[in-house]
Design a protein that fits this description.
Number of domains: 1
Number of strands: 0
Number of helices: 3
Radius of gyration: 14 Å
Order of helices and strands: HHH
Oligomer: single chain
Strand content: under 5%
Structural class: mainly alpha
């Protein structure tokens, strides 16, 4: 059974989005990309489940790569 990645588990999605935007303030594109990469690795470590991470990667790519 594939992991359930569609259920909202984030208690304050708007708060997270605002924090993410604040984290990018005064960063150039390269620094912003580095922040995102580091954040992805930190969050992946918190998730800890490779199957869930793979499902998230696939879902994130759905509308990007044709």
């Amino acid at each position: 059974m594939p992991p359930d990645i569609s259920t909202l588990r984030l208690s304050d999605a708007d708060g997270f989005y605002e924090a993410l935007l604040r984290g990018h303030e005064a960063l150039d594109a390269t620094q912003g990309a580095l922040l995102n990469a580091k954040l992805v690795m930190l969050l992946a470590n918190q998730v800890g489940d490779l199957a869930v991470l793979q499902a998230c990667i696939a879902a994130a790519r759905e509308d990007i790569a044709a």
